[in-house]
Amino acid sequence: MFDPRRFRLDRSRAVLLVIDVQERLAAAMPRASYETALANMIRWVEGGKVLGLPILWTEQYVKGLGPTVAPLREAIGSLATPVEKLDFTCLVPPVAEALAGKEQVVCVGMETHVCVFQTARDLVERGLCAFVPADAVCSRTEENRKVGLDLARAMGATVTGTETGLFDLVRRAGSDEFRAISRLVK
Hints:
Layout: E1 14-19, H1 23-26, H2 31-51, E2 55-60, H3 62-65, H4 70-76, E3 83-85, H5 93-98, E4 104-110, H6 112-125, E5 129-133, E6 137-138, H7 142-155, E7 158-160, H8 162-170, H9 176-185
């Protein structure tokens, strides 16, 4: 059955979830893929600020993988505090509680085939709409990134792109928000 919540982002129902973009994990990513994904993650954070989206942020096994990479940590600033976790899914109690009242979750981060996929799957299983911008996630191999996107899609997540998602949230041209988002995606 068609569910319009899966295909129309609505900022009053949406939250941005930044998943495990940590120093030691980032070092294992293919450089070009990582740089593209990181730039788009930062676009989502900056766009989220402009649009008033709540931002959630996780870190996987910090002792082994280190903290979130500096550019993303700086972009998030004081808007959120990272939730440390050992589970691959991000739906640990602090995150699940923060999602109360929200229906849509934009999932950016790494790795696509592990934490991003498992989070998207768990969101869909709980009746929430998961959006995965393909250009704002990465894995150690392109094959694993594609597997993660395919699995997320098969589970009912909406695979989208950064520009598509941000402009869907803006809805129309001519506003200060539109101009700010336009500058972000150029």
